[in-house]
Each structure stands twice: as C-alpha cells, then as structure tokens.
Design brief:
GO terms for molecular function: ABC-type transporter activity; ATP binding; ATP hydrolysis activity. The protein starts with a strand and ends with a helix. Helix content is about 40%, strand content about 25%. It folds into two domains: about 5-10 and about 55-95 and about 175-270, Rossmann fold (3-Layer(aba) Sandwich), CATH 3.40.50.300; about 105-175. The protein has helices at about 20-25, 30-35, 75-80, 115-125, 130-145, 160-170, 190-205, 215-220, 240-250, 255-270, and strands at about 5-15, 45-60, 65-70, 90-95, 100, 175-180, 205-210, 225-230, 230-235. It has about 270 residues and is of the alpha/beta class. The longest helix is centred in the last third of the chain and has 16 residues, at about 190-205. The strands form two sheets. It has a six-stranded mixed beta sheet, sandwiched between helices. The structure holds adenosine-5'-triphosphate. Adenosine-5'-triphosphate (ATP) binds near residues 14 and 70.
Length: about 270
C-alpha cells in the first residue's frame, strides 16, 4: 500500500484579532483585558491552538470523512494538507497532485469572465493550457452557468461561483481530492451532481479527504472518519463509530436531523 498523506504531530496556533481603540491599547480597562479571552477565563497571551498535536496517516485510495463541531479545526487541517497553510509544529507530507475545493471561488478574479477564470483556476491547480483546452467543454457543462460563462464572475451569484470552482476542481487529474462542505453550496441538482462526481473520484482510487457535518453523506462517501475535538484527534476509525462518538459528545450540537435526512436522500439517489 502507498501512503498518500502523513500528518505528524501537527499544531497550528492563531492569534485572536481584536480591534481596540488607541485608548484601550494604552490604558486597558479590566473589561478590555478580560475580553482577551472569549471564554471569559483569565486573560491569555492572545493566541490559541486551532490544531494541537494531530497525527494520522492516509493510504492511497482511502476516503476519509473529517468531522467535528464548529471551530474544531477541520478547515485548518484541510488547508495544511492542501499546502495553503504551513503548520507551526510537526509536518505534513502528501504524495502526488492535489485538487479540490477548499474556499469556494478562492483565487477567482472578479473582473475576469467565467471562461478566463476557468483557465486561471485550472493553471493554479497544475493543469497546462492544453489540458484545460481538452477538458474545457466538460468543465463548462458541469458548471452550467449558461450565458454567464462570458461575463465577469464579479456578477455571479454565490452558487454560480461555487459551481465554477467545483467544476474546475473535479476535472483536474489528481491523486488527492479535498472537499470542504460540498453539500453546503449549490442548489439540489448541483449537489446531486457533485456527490455523483465525488463518488466516481472515490471509485477511481483517488484519495479523498471530505469535510462534512452530514453523517449520511460521510457514511456513503467514506470508509474511515476522523473526528476533531478542539483541535485534537478525538476519534479515528470506523465511520459508524465516529458518528456515534460525535452524537455522544456533542449533545447540544446533534446534526440537524431533517437536513441529515435530506442529505441521506440525496446520497441514496446517486
Ligand atoms: N486565519 C485565522 N486566524 C485566526 N483564527 C482562525 C483562522 N482560521 C481559523 N481560525 C480559528 O481556528 C479555529 C478552527 O477553525 P476551523 O475553520 O478550522 O474550524 P472548522 O472545524 O472548520 O469549523 P466549521 O465547522 O465551523 O467550519 C476557529 O476558532 C477559528 O476561529
């Protein structure tokens, strides 16, 4: 078996960004000092660990669901794996070309048309002009933005933005595919199309790293799940067990049952 991703004792620290007046900086009141800790605890040095000693390995072709409550560090971890961000401690190793959707429309230029942005986005993901030429019609058909293809993306709706970004990402020949909250963007037909395409990607032996709050789609899409808890790996293993683990620990953040049912139905459809 070939190792696809190694995350070795990785930590990432961020700084809280407060906006204070000059007076507050020079003469901080007790209230301002206490505000340095949003949990209301004692004043901190203004930093916190979004990821703390995270380690795991992924084999080529595995499909990993990354789960956890809001703010547990999932997107940060994806950014480290995709190379958009570097860890402060530890190391992240990946094998092969990475594609995927991390921030919808990241790297798009508002003043350029959809067509130009497809070429630019594809180049950023490592595709040559010839490769993009060959796949252009498929990419445009998948995005399905109609006549808007030749208008500046600055005028697109957020859903159209997402369609274009996802469309390029799924047409890149890659070894690792990263998807953050795919089900959160696009309308129902587009979500269905995305899930179908991701299933094909998964079945083609590409390593998949998929962030979702939807237990249903992780169950159908992934063969292993990692649950982050406040920046640490709380669970790593069987998907069903991961879901149980999450329900047990997140009493006040049970996934929305209705939404889960809808996603289940969508995933069943494909
Ligand atoms: N660039 C940044 N600067 C400061 N703090 C950040 C930055 N990026 C993320 N954070 C913080 O790091 C923590 C983890 O964020 P992250 O986006 O990784 O969580 P998540 O698990 O993806 O959350 P969600 O489920 O809400 O998308 C959060 O508290 C967030 O506010």
């Amino acid at each position: 078996m070939t190792t696809s991703i190694v995350v070795d004792d990785v930590s990432k620290t961020f700084r809280y960004q407060y906006h204070r007046t000059l007076k507050q900086v020079l003469r901080p009141s007790r209230r301002t000092r206490e505000a340095a800790d949003p949990d209301g605890g004692p004043p901190t040095d203004g930093t916190f660990k979004a990821l703390d000693g995270v380690s795991f390995e992924v084999q080529q072709g595995e499909s990993i669901g990354l789960m956890g409550l809001n703010g547990s560090g999932k997107s940060t971890l994806l950014k480290l794996v995709s190379g958009v961000m570097r860890p402060d401690e530890g190391r992240v190793l990946t094998r092969g070309r990475i594609s995927g959707l991390i921030a919808t429309g990241a790297g798009f230029h508002n003043e350029l048309t959809g067509r130009d942005n497809i070429y630019m986005n594809a180049a950023m993901l490592g595709m040559s002009k010839e490769e993009t030429d060959a796949k252009f019609d498929d990419i445009a058909a998948f995005a399905d933005v109609g006549r808007f293809l030749d208008t500046p993306v600055g005028n697109y709706s957020s859903g159209m933005f997402a369609r274009l970004g996802f469309s390029v990402a799924v047409h890149v020949d890659c070894d690792i595919f990263i998807a953050d909250e795919v089900l959160a963007v696009g309308d129902r037909p587009f979500k269905r199309k995305c899930l179908k395409r991701m299933k094909e990607i998964r079945e083609s032996g590409i390593t998949m790293f998929y962030v979702s709050h939807s237990a249903g789609s992780v169950k159908r899409m992934c063969d292993r799940a990692i649950v982050l808890e406040k920046g640490r790996v709380g669970f790593d293993g069987d998907v069903e067990e991961a879901i149980k683990f999450l329900h047990y620990d997140g009493e006040d953040e049970e996934p929305d049952a209705e939404e889960d049912e809808r996603d289940d139905a969508l995933a069943n459809d494909i």
